[in-house]
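User: GAL3A protein, Chlamydotis macqueenii:
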Amino acid sequence: VKIFAPNIEQRDVVNHLKGSPTEEKRNVLVESARLARGNIQDLAELKASEFDAVIFPGGFGVAKNLCSWAVDGKNCTVNEHVNATLQAFHSAKKPIGLCCISPVLAAKVFPGCEVTVGQDKNVDGRFPDSETASAIAELGCKHICKNVNESHVDKANKIVTTCAFMCKAPLHEIFDGIGTMVQEVLKLA
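Assistant: Predicted structure for GAL3A protein:
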């Protein structure tokens, strides 16, 4: 297992205590190294031939830094190294795991794929970003409704997705969904 991140500046830095952006500037690779305790490499160096699968975690940083979904929605662009990584694993018929908001990367890069970001309606107020499912469909992909503790496997494309924090749920349910996504990726590897 190796961890990679793009060597780019963050779109913005958020003070998570206050929930608002700061004037501070940070680099995605440097911040990722902080979270990974330093054991990380530049995404530009990733070679799909050296790995059995790839998993992209989620979080709003995906929508701001790995692509421009946070600003441009379905008209977003995907970071060149993220796009190249996804294309390389897909071309090699190796599994791709995506959670939280990161399934939009597959929806943008692989028209016709199947993904989930949870539900397509804000069921019981638990899915406040349910309109993402409609945007995925507008990109020519199929959104599959799943509960937070489930994942979806697009067998034809070897793409496994789960909604994670796209659902307001207890952490143990989010953990379970991510766990099923990882298990399914490993089964396909």
